[in-house]
Amino acid sequence: MDERAKRSGNTATVTRALRIFSFCAAIVLGAGALLGGMPGEDPATAQGSNSFTGVASCAGSTCHGRSEGNGAVVRQDEIATWQEPSAVSGAHSRAYAVLSGQRGRQIAQSLGWDDATSRSECLGCHSTFVPTSQRGARFQTNDGVGCESCHGAASGWLASHYTVGATHNANVARGLTPLDRPQARAKVCLDCHYGSANEGQFVTHAMMAAGHPRISFELDLFSAFQQHHNVDADYIRRKRAPDNVQMWAVGQAEAVARATDLFARPALANEGVFPQFYFYDCHSCHRQIFDSADRNLTFETNPGRPIQFGQPPFNDENIIMLDAVSQALAPGRAASFRSASRAFHDAMGDGWPQAQQAAMALRGEAARLSDALAQRSYGGNDAFAVIGVIGARATTARFTDYAGSAQAVMAVDTLLNALVTQDRITIGAAAGIRADLNRAYEAVRSPQAFRPAAYRSALGSAVTAIERLR
Questions:
Q1: How much is the pLDDT for 16?
Q2: pLDDT digits (tens, 9 = 90+) for 369-379
Q3: 269-301, pLDDT tens digit by residue?
Q4: pLDDT at 153
Q5: Computed from CA positions of residues 229, 387, 250, 24, in that sequence, does the dihedral angle turn out positive or negative?
Q6: What is the model's pLDDT at position 23?
Q7: Across residues 304-318, what is the average pLDDT?
Q8: Is the model's pLDDT at 391 over the cut of 80?
Q9: Is the pTM for the entire model greater than 0.85?
Q10: CB contact set of 168 (below 8 Å; sequence gap of 6+)
């Protein structure tokens, strides 16, 4: 299959995946990933002594500012893709502007802020948020989530990364963020697409109550939305051929590690006398309440969560996916991860000290899974194996919740796309499965319209059809 056909298949996947993004805050508000430091790292020191030169420093017509992607080595129209006003690929460039839009103004008003564009709580993810001392002459905050938000402060590598003989490893040594490495990419993206302990990179329940969308994360699909380059022979020679299954799997592991790390921090885990409800499953509480003779349960028992009846459950959509990953791709770590996840849910009913300790234990298991998934080789039937595990559970009570169901649809879509990219199945065969996937997407289009029975039926049909192609 030639590269153009594969890119066409990727485009079809992205187009259909847009159905699910009513619950993805990054796309709705244009929030983007920021600095690549670990949680708790000071953004002022995360890039060392390098300074941020601004989007304009990358926008020359001989660099990344062409109107057409006809460069000899790289496309060179990356800025145009980043700025595209009508496409998901332009969401990062629009991130700052949405702060002064209608929803941004409403959120600021509810929270008692004069202007969201001046609040660090917003700028941490809606801009390249760095101290004034690290800003170059062409740096502008209103660029939104610019090139250096993901690629790192450019002053150390800007002048050398395009020279004859320059290598990717040398650029990384000068401060370029190695986004070709799944763990590094996941950490960068999660800073805003889940949160971090850095200033301005944590969405509180108060912000969501004021109107900020719920946060959701899936690394491979989000990467497809923001891919500004071609994975051609030159890219593979300089870096390596990316693997969609690995990217998705490592993303799930890093998401669990990040969620439990932040939850274990007392400064983030509480909001006044209440726990920080950001960490919990929104839809376990936000349901219609009726006062009638027949009770209307607002809580569904989930066998994967050994918690007390009526207790708000931790939002475990990525835990559900990582459990499936471990079963299929890292069976040696599966039992210990599942035990730690169950212990975490159980500890939530015991008290804060027990929950904090269990969260850190689960974080450790997720981190070890991330390392194992990043280091293993991929190929063969890996994508089929993960789809099989998810499909076997998709019609069971483990997927009682909207968030977990939405993650399952995204996962099957991502893995189906991986099978096309790997030449395991044809674009035509994948297209024949699209009707079922589209029905599954429609069933999880929004929390208000979530139809569990329709979702299970549609996703089950898609998985069965994929299995036939194995």
A1: 38
A2: 999 999 999 98
A3: 998 889 999 999 888 888 777 778 887 666 667
A4: 96
A5: positive
A6: 32
A7: 84
A8: yes
A9: yes
A10: 176, 178, 180, 238, 239
Q: Looking at the predicted structure, is the pLDDT value of residue 261 above 90?
A: yes
Largest separation between any pair of C-alpha atoms in the chain: 77
Q: Which two tokens stand for residue 428?
A: 């035509």
Q: Read off the tokens for 189.
A: 């993206």
Higher per-residue confidence, 123 vs 310: 123
Three-state DSSP string of the chain: CCHHHHHHHHHHHHHHHHHHHHHCHHHHHCCCCCCCCCCCCCCCCCCCCCCECCHHHHCCCCCCCCCCCCCCCCCCCHHHHHHCCCCHHHCCCCCCHHHHCHHHHHHHHHCCCCCHHHCHHHHHHHCCCCCHHHECCCCCHHHCCCHHHHHCCCCCCCCCCCCCCCCHHHHHHCCCCCCCCHHHHHHHHHHHHCCCCCCCCCCCHHHHHHCCCCCCCCHHHHHHHCCCCCCCHHHHHHCCCCCHHHHHHHHHHHHHHHHHHHHCCHHHHEECCEECHHHECHHHHCCCCCCCCCCCCCCCCCCCCCCCCCCCCECCHHHHHHHHHHHHHCHHHHHHHHHHHHHHHHHCCCCHHHHHHHHHHHHHHHHHHHHHHHHCCCCCCHHHHHHHHHHHHHCCHHHCCHHHHHHHHHHHHHHHHHHHHCCCCCHHHHHCCHHHHHHHHHHCCCHHHCCHHHHHHHHHHHHHHHHHCC
pLDDT at residue 30 greater than cutoff 60 = no
Residue keyed to tokens 């899974």: 369
**pLDDT confidence of residue 4:** 32
Distance CA 265, CA 54 (A): 33
